[in-house]
Write a structure and sequence with these properties.
The structure holds two protein chains of two kinds.
Chain A (H helix, E strand, L loop, with lengths): L1 H8 L10 E10 L2 E11 L4 E5 L6 H8 L7 E6 L2 E2 L5 H9 L1 E4 L11 H12 L4 H14 L15 H12 L6 E5 L7 H18 L2 E6 L2 H7 L2 E6 L2 E6 L1 H5 L4 H8 L15 H6 L4
Chain B lengths: L7 E5 L2 E8 L5 H8 L8 E12 L1 H16 L3 E5 L3 H11 L16 H33 L8 H12 L3 H25 L6 H39 L2 H7 L4 H40 L3 H11 L2 H27 L5 H33 L2
Classes of the chains: A alpha/beta, B alpha/beta.
Chain lengths: ~280, ~375
């Protein structure tokens, strides 16, 4: 992208440089190329959705943004800082400003709801007990689970666990929050609640939101900007409206959920005959 | 309910009649017979499927293999009376051209290749373990000046779980070992009239070697495995990733309290094992050799100098370090499945016991060399 060079040189002129700038990101796992020169800008204060079929490395992308993985080439700048050049302590300080919601919720199983939300605060701050309690009750109120604070994580339903994880992710008042497949495996009511919650947190707290998802209608409903990635590249970018009227056959296949099309049904494999004739394991 | 009809075939001149249920779970019996070439007198063979109760992909594959075999022998084959579904299935299988995918045996890799792979793997593991050790050491260096970051509460929890809870089993086993040693040696000591040297034998062997080693092995099985399973499960449920995104170093919160706690707990457990082992020896001395307790203790005080006692206790923190770091390291190596947790837990126990014994041997040589 040429525009990214311009925008970085005009940081002062541009009132709102993107919060996250991904430039020429290349990442390989063994022989398999996951990203091949990926360029993505995530604007501040907006809901940005990164969509693509499963297996395109959406979760990997979030891990790269959080510097849990290192790219082979390219860079990711978060709030103007190249995240992969940060040393240990600075990196951990940066991570505290980036909340993340895991697909599996990843609550700490030996702690109850209250302590799970309290955990990042206890670890990273030295607040007196009263302030801590108030802050946590506020976060739990925001996700509607103030009354469930003494439940253990095994007593929570999937939807509740995700809301607790959300409360935990915003416990440190991060500047951005990344959602990994927030809509999968939820009943319609919980789904609606989560969608509304994501939107409300984004607008109410002035957060920057990144959603990684393949649930088309829910994501398009709240996203301001959508990137569609496939085979390591951005194949489409734009507002939900423009994407729905796209004439790219690939994007259309994805948006409408057709089984076969430009995206092949088969995972890359050696010729079928060769495989059948091969040795038994 | 109709009984399951096994698949069968019958050759009748120029017709091969198939009967029964040709499904994958029942094919084994006919497969054997169809592997050998069938002697067909006529030039044309009709395979009659009209009596086949059910045909699934496995059955169709078998039929198609037969067809290919016969065609290779120069026969013309005709398939008759397949219902539309079977016919569709057969033509689908036939599209794979030759369905006789040989199920040949896999060649075992050559010896040198296996050896090379194993060596590289072992080197890689050693490298990884050393980097883990280095990272842990660095983290503890950062955490040491700030007492709060050492997490006293979690250290106490480790001491309770690994130390206090292990007292009964460690006590009982070392008592029994003390009993066994003195019982075995009592006979010989009596022959030479050296009854009073029982205290030397039990005291030195327990305090110098057996108590530290025995305690370390019990703790490796009890606590090292628990460390691996706990961290491993947290890896599977992404809790470790979640900690990282919250800006918390997993090593600081999970590894350091365990290592420090065990370094405190293991020497205390060893001391406890010393006492109970010697007590077991004294009991047998009283019962079998008639040495009363006060003269046993007197002899013990002369035989067991402070340095042998300290040599035994000094090993305990080293063993604790080995058990805790191996346990935690294996936990972090878990990848995504319950099976991996089990595998790593086993590895953790085996490796820590192995390293403990090797370290014990090395320390014995070192102490001997230093003349302690």
């Amino acid at each position: 992208m040429n525009s990214s060079d311009n925008s970085s040189s005009q940081i002062d002129a541009d009132q709102d440089p993107p919060l996250v700038q991904i430039e020429g990101l290349t990442f390989r796992r063994g022989q398999k190329v996951i990203f091949d020169g990926l360029d993505i800008d995530i604007p501040r204060g907006k809901v940005t959705a990164i969509m693509g079929p499963s297996g395109t490395g959406k979760t990997t992308l979030l891990k790269l943004i959080g510097a849990q993985l290192r790219p082979q080439a390219g860079r990711i700048r978060v709030d103007g800082v190249d995240i992969h050049r940060l040393g240990g302590r600075a990196l951990y300080r940066m991570r505290r400003r980036m909340g993340m919601l895991f697909q599996s919720s990843a609550l700490l199983t030996d702690l109850d709801v209250f302590e799970n939300v309290a955990f990042p605060l206890r670890e990273n701050t030295r607040l007196p007990g009263g302030v801590l309690r108030t802050l946590i009750l506020m976060k739990l109120q925001a996700v509607g689970l103030r009354g469930a604070r003494r439940l253990t994580s095994s007593e929570l339903s999937g939807g509740m666990a995700r809301r607790v994880a959300l409360a935990r992710a915003i416990a440190l008042d991060p500047m951005m929050i990344m959602y990994d497949e927030p809509f999968t495996g939820l009943d319609p009511i919980t789904l609606g609640a989560i969608v509304a919650l994501i939107k409300r947190l984004n607008d109410g707290m002035g957060l920057t939101t990144v959603i990684v998802s393949h649930d088309v209608p829910e994501t398009l409903g709240i996203a301001d900007l959508v990137y569609v990635i496939s085979q390591g590249k951005v194949v489409a970018r734009g507002s939900p409206e423009t994407l729905q009227q796209t004439d790219s056959p690939w994007v259309r296949q994805f948006m409408r959920g057709e089984a076969d099309g430009p995206v092949p049904f088969h995972y890359p494999a050696p010729p079928y005959l060769e495989d059948l004739m091969g040795d038994a394991p | 309910m109709s009984a399951i009809v096994l698949p069968e075939f019958e050759l009748d001149d120029s017709t091969l009649r198939l009967r029964g249920r040709w499904t994958v779970d029942l094919l084994e019996s006919v497969d054997k017979h169809l592997r050998r070439p069938i002697a067909v007198p006529a030039d044309t063979l009709v395979i009659d499927l009209s009596d086949v109760e059910r045909l699934d992909a496995g059955g169709a594959w078998l039929v198609q293999r037969l067809v290919s075999d016969l065609k290779e022998m120069g026969k013309a084959v005709e398939i008759k009376s397949a219902n539309p579904e079977s016919a569709a299935l057969l033509s689908l299988i036939a599209k794979q051209r030759d369905p006789r995918g040989c199920s040949g045996r896999r060649e075992p890799p050559p010896f040198l290749e296996t050896l090379g792979r194993r060596s590289v793997q072992t080197l890689h593991t050693a490298y990884e373990f050393l980097s883990f050790l280095g990272e842990s050491a660095l983290t503890s260096l950062h955490a040491l000046p700030i007492p709060r970051r050492l997490r006293p509460r979690m250290i106490l929890k480790t001491i309770e779980q690994a130390g206090v809870a292990a007292l009964p089993i460690v006590g009982l086993l070392s008592f029994l070992i003390g009993v066994v040693i003195s019982y075995q040696s009592a006979v010989f000591l009596r022959q030479y009239g050296a009854n009073y040297f029982l205290a030397n034998l039990v005291g030195i062997s327990m305090a110098r070697e057996l108590a530290p080693l025995l305690t370390a092995i019990i703790v490796a099985g009890r606590t090292g495995s628990a460390f691996t399973a706990q961290i491993g499960t947290m890896m599977v449920t992404e809790e470790i990733d979640a900690l990282r995104t919250m800006g918390i170093r997993p090593i600081e919160i999970l590894v350091l309290p365990k290592v420090l706690g065990l370094i405190i707990a293991l020497p205390l457990l060893t001391l406890f094992a010393d006492i109970l082992g010697i007590f077991g020896g004294a009991l047998i001395g009283k019962l079998v050799l008639g040495i009363n307790l006060s003269s046993f203790l007197e002899q013990l005080a002369q035989a067991l100098n402070v340095s042998s006692y300290l040599v035994g206790l000094a090993k305990a923190p080293i063993f604790a370090l080995v058990i805790a770091t191996v346990g935690c390291y294996q936990g972090f190596k878990v990848q995504g499945s319950a099976e991996s947790v089990g595998l790593r837990t086993t590895q953790s126990v085996v490796q820590s016991i192995f390293i403990v014994i090797v370290a014990d041997a090395a320390l014995s040589i070192l102490f001997n060399w230093l003349g302690i």
